[in-house]
Amino acid sequence: MPLFRPHPHDVLLCVISVLAGLVLWSLGLYTTTFRDLLPAWAALVPLAVMGVVELFRRTAPQPALLIGTAALIADQLTVGNLATVFMFTDVMYAAVVYGHPAMARRLPIVTGVITVVATLLSVALLRTPESVLIGVVTGIVCFGPALTGASVRYHREAADAARLRAEQTALLAEMDRKAAIVAERARMARELHDMVANHLSAIAIHSTAALSIDSADTSREALGVIRENSVQGLSEMRRLIGLLRQAGAEQEPVAVPSLDGLAALLDQARATGAASGLEFVLEDTRPAGGEPLPAPVELAAYRIVQESVTNALKHAAPGPVRVLIGRSGALLTVRVDSPYGDRPGPRAPGSGAGLVGMRERTELLGGEFAAGPAEPVGAAGATGTVWQVRAVLPAEEKAVEA
Q: Where would I find the H helices in 27-143?
């Protein structure tokens, strides 16, 4: 608010106070009757000055308080006007409420000290019981408004702080909600990609083969594989839709893929990759009868193998694709080695999202992921370079929850 544009409420307060002071003066109602050094009309000067000061109580509290204090002292040299004193108490209150923080902190202390000093001096000099009233009046005029203003300001600042905290809490909640939505969308995207990529890759490979090779037997075989993968892909899509629609615990739980389904997964991969010269071998070295894996780890391991097999069907050179599953204490190791090199025949396009999804699944569980060319390890008779996908996942429930 500009300095020379008073608040409408302050203008109204000024007009009412000055009019009340004029009425009191016209009726001869003065605060004192023994100060006759100046004529009675002299009391109107401090009243007018205090009225002007009242206009700027909110926009310029510090200058208003200084000028108002001078006007109050001048009023004490005249017959006095009660409206002038009341306007000063309001200016003192406004200085604490609207002034800068340092002034708001100091005024209650300063006015409190002035009240105590005025009481002690009046008692020491006058030595009458009525002298105590001087200190009481000083406290009412100075200390009381300052203390009231400090209390009002404190509650206003506390309310502003509470409102700010509420806004920040709402903002953080909105940010958490958006982050949760983004994370859920990413999870759904990974799940959708992992479920249908294998089937769509097989469809793409065999449809390309059927189009490029003019043979009735080849086309019939390719159409059979395409139909099988289409049906299975549709089933997987329906499972995902059922999972998304599941709203409460009263509904039937949807089955989640586990490592027990790797054999069926590789059987399907063998049928799809036979034409490309790919062989799929599963080596599960986990001890029999061991503790079950946490559901998130089980699903992540299955999806990593599924995506690795899908990538092998798309890009691997002819040869064996080895899937190795092992568990050592609190760690589950998943490794897929596929032949690395040029591949003849049709190839399905890749987007690169598979590696990103596998890495995200692993890191969300606090595991380690690596993918790239490597020398074959632990495979009898294996030679040459392989493309190795390796993930190490926590195999204990508490590790996953942490």
A: 44-55, 61-75, 82-98, 101-126, 132-138
